[in-house]
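Subject: Sanity check before I submit

Could someone independently write out the structure tokens for this chain? I want to compare against mine line by line before I put it in a report. The sequence has 162 residues.
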Amino acid sequence: MQEVTLNVTDEEQLYNSFDPRRNLLRDEVKTYLLNEVQIEGRMDGINLEVRSGAALDEERFADGLHRWIADEERSIEKTHRRNMFQQIWMFGIGVLFITLSLLLQPMVSVVWFTVLSTIGAFSMWEAASIWIIQNPKLRMRRRAVARLKEGLTLSFQHAPVG
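---
Independent answer below. Compare away.
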């Protein structure tokens, strides 16, 4: 089981001060949790220990954490759908422009051939960029969120943080 410790001196360090419901986790907390979970490649459970100098509203933190996990899952799915659409779209545009450049090469000037083939190559490069760079990062984030959702146990320690 992976141990993750979150040290805070004050409960308000955990939450975004702009949230009217007061249970939206602060971006620094979310980033820290995702980074800690992604570092470990394991798929077993996670014990998140929150250490604070004062008593915490444990239910409020648990609600905020579960709210963030649910929001993160929706965000990942939305990003995945957008990436797939962009990848297919850019690849299709690339194939179209490269095909046009090859078919029209004998009929157009060198400048137009270069423009058409460059647009095609750039579009295919963008599709490859999504596939090679963005999708693996998204898969890592999806695995980290799944670990947090399925294998998370919370514990709280109310002692001076040192």
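---
OP: Matches mine. For the report I'm noting this point. The helical segments are 27-39, 58-104, 110-151.
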